[in-house]
Amino acid sequence: MKVAVLDVKGKETGRKADLSDAVYKIEPNKHAIYLDVKQYMAHQRQGTHSTKERADIVGSTRKIKKQKGTGTARAGSIKSPIFRGGGRVFGPRPKDYSQKLNKNVKRLARKSALSLKGQDQAIMVVEDFNFDSPKTKDFIQILKSLGLENKKSLFVLGDSNNNVYLSSRNLKGYEVVTNSELSTYKILNANQIVLLEGSLEGIEANLNK
Is pLDDT of 31 > 90? Predict the structure, then answer.
């Protein structure tokens, strides 16, 4: 698949990037996509939720009233869940939500997601760029030149670039990642995928292992 390479002003450079059909033009496997997104969402959960049950409450263990003759229900502990300040019944406990997924399934899911974006013509290739220092206004200017002002976009870099990352960090709806950080969820969550030239070789290398 041939895609025109654009410069940071949104104009064609005259070069074309050759995107591998084995990565960007396969028959999408929706079940693989589902499994990978499900794993990603599960891994976002901290699992630190916790409450105190009656055994965890600090307090007296004496019997608060005699067993019979009071005219009310029996009560053996002030820490009982029926009293104010008592423990919770079957409360949540810390839990590990992580899930396992085969590497081949994850690769298939990412290739399927990229292929879906390719079908929607939502992939563009831009020549590599850099900033002398982190400046959000410079990044916004590139977004305007590429016509991405109101589009949720994912920029994929070849190598980590701190200036570009910091320039985009406080803009809602835009994310900058390296080719090794690319995930199925992030691909599908963006309306437009912007691949920098330096990322193409790394993406294909990672997904064709």
Answer: yes
